[in-house]
Amino acid sequence: MVPTGADAEHAPRPRVEGDREQEILAATLEVLGDVGYDRLTMDAVATRARASKATLYRRWSSKARLVVEALHSTKTPTEVPDTGSLREDLTLLFCGFGPGDGLMDREQVGLFASVITAIARDADFAAAWREHVVPLKQAPSREVWERAVRRGEVRADADLDLLEAALPGIVLHRVFVLGEEPTPELVARVIDQIVLPAATDGH
């Protein structure tokens, strides 16, 4: 029996979950990649996902929350490398286990470019990004660094917060500011010339 009148107003709304939720998140990433965060709208995502705007708002209270959840859903390494060597672990983590992984993943780098301005301009988005996305993306790198410390490969007083940010920070700077391609050779240069000397006092 379909509820009517006052009963309809209080009837439970269908939840957006499972495959449908993933379809909407995928559509969000597509729109984000096409137009960037500033020009992304709930209407545009609804159209791309073939859903109503009301359906989106039943699940996500704002554009910021929708985009953050979509970014949170993007792939992270299913297996953190553990080769026994910091250099090899970092190479695998940031160059990936195959083409299109790590910093070589043009889609992931492009999505990051799409939200840079939003992080600076939208306080709600920035707070949600730092709470939900950053820890997820940093966790594999932190695990690699902490293992290296336990092995004695990295000096005990090393500032891991600075060191683990150095590699992606330098590579992305060269990609976005200098227009270089993110290549395994670039990653290797940063590891060998900057990261490892700083982590080990040059030894």
UniProtKB/TrEMBL annotation:
Disordered: annotated segments:
1-20
Please report the organism this UniProt entry assigns to the protein: Nocardioides oceani
DNA-binding region(s): which residue ranges?
41-60
Task: Supply the SUPFAM superfamilies for this chain.
Answer: Homeodomain-like (SSF46689), Tetracyclin repressor-like, C-terminal domain (SSF48498)
- In which domain of life is the source organism classified? Bacteria
The organism's lineage is: Bacteria, Bacillati, Actinomycetota, Actinomycetes, Propionibacteriales
Keywords from UniProt, A to Z, are: DNA-binding, Transcription, Transcription regulation
Q: Where is the composition biased (Basic and acidic residues)?
A: 7-20
Pfam families linked: TetR_C_11 (PF16859), TetR_N (PF00440)
**Gene3D superfamilies of this UniProt entry?**
Homeodomain-like, Tetracycline Repressor, domain 2
Q: In its keyword annotation, does this UniProt entry include Protease?
A: no
In Swiss-Prot or TrEMBL terms, this protein is called: TetR/AcrR family transcriptional regulator
Q: Which InterPro entries match?
A: DNA-bd_HTH_TetR-type_CS (IPR023772), Homeodomain-like_sf (IPR009057), HTH-type_TetR-like_transc_reg (IPR050109), HTH_TetR (IPR001647), Tet_transcr_reg_TetR-rel_C_sf (IPR036271), TetR_C (IPR011075)
The UniProt record lists the HTH tetR-type domain at 18-78
Task: State whether keyword DNA-binding applies.
Answer: yes
